[in-house]
Amino acid sequence: MSAIDIRWARETDIAAIVAMLADDPLGQAREDAGLPLSQAYLDAFAAIDGDPNQFLAVMTDGDDVIGTLQITFIAGLSLRGGRRGLIEAVRVAAWRRGEGLGQRLFEWAIDKCRERGCRVVQLTTNKSRTDAHRFYERLGFKASHIGYKLEL
Amino acid sequence: MSAIDIRWARETDIAAIVAMLADDPLGQAREDAGLPLSQAYLDAFAAIDGDPNQFLAVMTDGDDVIGTLQITFIAGLSLRGGRRGLIEAVRVAAWRRGEGLGQRLFEWAIDKCRERGCRVVQLTTNKSRTDAHRFYERLGFKASHIGYKLEL
């Protein structure tokens, strides 16, 4: 019997989430998963947790945090006032890949977007993440856009 | 002397913003700028206006609304807890293009993202908007990502 669960993240999950963000070809240059965690991570969690339109999710197996993603609900005039669900910071723990957990996590997230009345779920993924491209296309996402970033 | 100004949108700007969203090869199929405006647009404006992390901007010239964009500030654990500024729904009125107004509006928006401590400004643009691609690249944005959308 699987003990896998998906729920909103708590402060005690932050270190495990940052470890997953860092364990990645792009993330390893950007993150610092060393303990004690940088206060910036704790402050960012508090900001997410205090924002009624932001939700950080974790997938757990017993006491292990094995996946994460973040959903931001965005009201907008375009799409006839349609709400969007933006998904960021998606990870499945390296030792648990290939089990379909990412798909399960994403289907849960898409359901949350439906529950909030979103017209669109959107995300961007680095051009170098070719496995991710196939994953999103299998889930029905269309690669209709270019994602631009400007570092400040 | 130019009377051009950029400010946060008010309820009285909604019809002009929706008219710009609709006056566009992609927008004309998606929006309904007919008056009286659909209640969904008014509800979406109220949701944006009530969200401390969402800002809808207009560029005005006297009484005319001649440009718009929306900024969403997103806290996140990734990027060492770095905040992102997401820009959506960018338009300059058709009769005022070619005057550099889009650049002026964008530089203002990027300044707002800096003031809020964003590490990154990000946006997606449809692959068919080739003029927009050149515009963002001139502003220093890097086309590093693919933008995926799933319609619900």
**What is the mean predicted local confidence, pLDDT of chain A?**
95
Helix count from the secondary structure assignment of chain A: 5
- Oligomer description: homodimer
- Going by helix content, strand content and strand pairing, the class of chain A is alpha+beta
CATH topology of chain A: Aminopeptidase
Q: According to CATH, what is the class of chain A?
A: Alpha Beta
User: What is the rounded distance between the termini of chain A?
Assistant: 47 Å
Determine Rg of chain A (CA atoms, Å): 16 Å
Helix and strand run of chain A: EHHEEHEHEHE
| Helix share bin of chain A | 25-40%
What name goes with the CATH superfamily of chain A? Gcn5-related N-acetyltransferase (GNAT)
In the sheet with the most strands of chain A, the strands line up as 1-2-3-4-5
Shape of chain A: globular
Give the biggest sheet of chain A: 5 strands, mixed
The CATH architecture term of chain A is 3-Layer(aba) Sandwich
Proportion of residues in extended strands of chain A: 25-35%
Of all chain pairs, the largest interface belongs to: A-B, 66 and 66 residues
Question: Could you list the spans of chain A in which at least 5 consecutive residues all have pLDDT below 50?
Answer: none
Fold topology:
The structure is a homodimer of 152-residue chains.
Chain A: E1 4-8, H1 14-22, H2 39-49, E2 54-61, E3 64-74, H3 78-81, E4 83-92, H4 101-115, E5 118-126, H5 130-138, E6 142-151
